[in-house]
Amino acid sequence: MRKRQGLILAGILGAACLTIGPAVPAEPTVKTVPTPKERPRDVTLAGNVAKASKVSEDDVNKVLKALGPAMREELTKGQAVTIEGLGTFRIVKLPEYRDLKDGKPVVIPARNTVEFVPSEGTLDAANSENAKPAVVVPAFEYNALPGQTPGQKMGRTRMPDVRVR
Questions:
Q1: Is the four-CA dihedral 47, 5, 114, 120 of positive or negative sign?
Q2: How much is the pTM?
Q3: From CA 165, how far away is CA 160, in angstroms rounded?
Q4: Among 26, 84, 22, which Cα is nearest to 54's?
């Protein structure tokens, strides 16, 4: 089943590349030395992919723009989309649950969401020494009384049990 999905995705990407045009221009281009005004731009994902695949950055941008609608179409059909070396996108149904909204209990209806399951290489890259997180999520702290600091536990305040005869 996964091979079929991979072949479908490869076919979509291949068709997109064919419609964009050949990667090698018919006429040779003359390389010029960039002037100080034409300093290289910040390195982007499209720039890295273009450099690695020896395709122009514009062609890579066109493929990346075509990738979103193609993935949405596959997810709409209920298919999982696997990108080799990156991971898998799939639809997951979240059940109905209860939560508090403005201090009042509400029922959140069941809904679908997209889940990303990274491949091993992606997980290793995320946990490498040089990886810097974009956002640091604070640890969850339960507070029974929102807006107030929790008090310290108090010992027993009642008088000890004494039998009177």
A1: negative
A2: 0.55
A3: 16
A4: 22
